[in-house]
Amino acid sequence: RLERLQRVVTKLQMESGLCEEQLNQADALLQADVRLLAAGKAPQKAAEVERDLDKADSMIRLLFNDVQSLKDGRHPQGEQMYRRVYRLHERLVSIRTEYNLRLKSGAPVTAVTAVSVTSGQRRPEPDEAPLRYLQELLAWVEDNQRRVSAAEWGADLPTVETHLGAHRGLHRAIEEFRAKVER
């Protein structure tokens, strides 16, 4: 039993490293597109970013399953592996949020008020970036609500506990996000 759990730890270490690389790649592509947007150009890698984020999401779900088997087997590294996978999940949520806010909405990196010249006077026009930002936030919340509603919880206790762990991770991310919005 301990040998089997140790193999799970080794697998978790290797696959979490691969997941981290996937997230690094997605983040690098996202930052490149954000720079393009800031320069007034169209993003080039949005589809790749979304694909990488979806791959990382799938990997993290599988990692949470493995973590749950470690916890069920009371392996001494179970909590450590949980924290590692949870950090990956937080990073995924962070990158996906930035992707939704900056790339999907096309919002600039900094909110700039447009100035037009009419009859010799400069008059600021309302900037649409905050409205777009709020719309993207709402879309992110609605997307996550759909995911939670459509999630299958499994028929056996270990599967249910695994899904519950992933749900709690998402819930914590949402609560942290809520605190930032309130601030």
Structure explained in plain terms:
It is a single chain. With 183 residues, this protein is mainly alpha-helical. It has two domains: 1-104, Methane Monooxygenase Hydroxylase, Chain G, domain 1 (Up-down Bundle); 128-182. 76% of the residues lie in helices and 4% in strands. The chain has helices spanning 2-38, 46-72, 78-104, 129-150, 157-182; strands at residues 115-118, 121-124. α2 packs across α5 (157-182). The radius of gyration is 20 Å and the shape is globular. It starts with a helix and ends with a helix. Mean pLDDT is 76; it is low at 107-126. One of its GO terms (molecular function) is structural constituent of cytoskeleton.
Secondary-structure blueprint:
Layout lengths: L1 H37 L7 H27 L5 H27 L10 E4 L2 E4 L4 H22 L6 H26 L1
Antiparallel strand pairs: 1-2
Features:
183 residues; mainly alpha; Methane Monooxygenase Hydroxylase, Chain G, domain 1; 2 strands; 4% strand; globular
| Helix and strand element order | HHHEEHH
Strand content: under 5%
Instruction: Name the strands of the widest sheet in spatial order.
Output: 1-2
N- to C-terminal separation? Answer: 48 Å
Helices, by number, come to 5
Q: How much helix is in the residues?
A: over 70%
Which oligomerization state do the chains in this entry correspond to? single chain
How many strands, which pairing sense, and closed or not: the largest β-sheet?
2 strands, antiparallel
Shape: globular
Low-confidence stretches: 107-126
Count of beta strands: 2
User: Total domains, how many?
Assistant: 2
CATH topology annotation of the largest domain: Methane Monooxygenase Hydroxylase, Chain G, domain 1
CATH-derived architecture of the largest domain: Up-down Bundle
Report the radius of gyration as a whole number of Å.
Answer: 20 Å
Overall pLDDT, averaged?
A: 76
| CATH class category of the largest domain | Mainly Alpha
SS content category: mainly alpha
